[in-house]
Amino acid sequence: MRPRRSSVRRSSRTARLLFAAGAAATFLVSESVRAQDASTDGALFLLLPIGAETVGMAQATVAERLGTESVWSNPAGIDQSDKREAAIHHSETLGARGDVITVLFPRKHVGAFAVSVNLLDFGNQQITDREGTPIGLVLPRNIMFAGTFGTSVGKGLSLGMSYKRLQYRVDCSGQCANVATFSAGASAIDFGAQYKVPGDSLVRLGVAVRNVGTRLQVGDDEQADPLPTRIEVGLSYRLAFIAKYVSDIDARVAGDLIATETADHPSARIGADITYEKTVHLRGGWIANDTDGARAALGFGLGTGRRVFDIARTFGGLSEESGKTPTYISLRFLG
Q1: Higher model confidence: residue 72 or residue 321?
Q2: Which of 17, 65, 168, 329 gives 20 to 30 Å between its CA and that of 85?
Q3: Backbone angles phi, psi at 263, to 5 degrees
Q4: What is the pLDDT of residues 138-156, one digit of tens each?
């Protein structure tokens, strides 16, 4: 029996609405935050955190050197990487499931290069005929490719840049003749710098300007949304005095301030990482006025030779309140 066209069209419209709702769900917070002008930005998934180490430190990582995770927080952070690294970063939230693969290549006297692919899956929407029989699937996805370079300039200064090409799309499989699919694309660039304070190996400063690029336009629609450009500044401080009392413990704290390019609606993050024998990590942090509504974070890491495992979660926000624990897992291989 041929499916009724009106039923298929309704399923298509429903899929598009669910896709938009899923993308927005990750970022819904209080009524006052939803009313901010920044909510008119497109491609809000660019603000999602990537990497369990980053999340465990409450995303206070602008001045941190985190290998492949620095691609997404401050590209200057990959400059001092001395080992090749391949990493898989996985996330589960109410809005979507994310998987990121990044490969990093350091080059002596040149800097470091990294290439990444980021897939964000909003879940499938089933298409049925008038009798409720499944006949296809609508597949909402975000796909992003990134290339990153970081290098040193003079003594203590690292600079970095990432180019990102993103695609925001809805595809269909099965009987899709009457299902309207669509796609939207944009390009973005991240710039970053880190500075190690002279004569003091304990303090490092960082600044990043993220998501500067073209507007996100769906098909031939006249309306195009700006990307969520953010300016971030931060500081990382190593608590060296702890080693005087406990030789096997190393600790550092970090703090970031984040705002739009017009300095509206700033937010703040504070994070800490306590390391035992350079192998076991315990992380935690606090978040103020964050886009996704999270208020705190906790993480754990374990490094065994060339393999590093990290896991983290956030507390508060729509995902937790809806019963979906926001969980982030990273697995890194060092060469």
Answers
A1: 72
A2: 168
A3: 65, 25
A4: 888 899 999 999 999 988 8
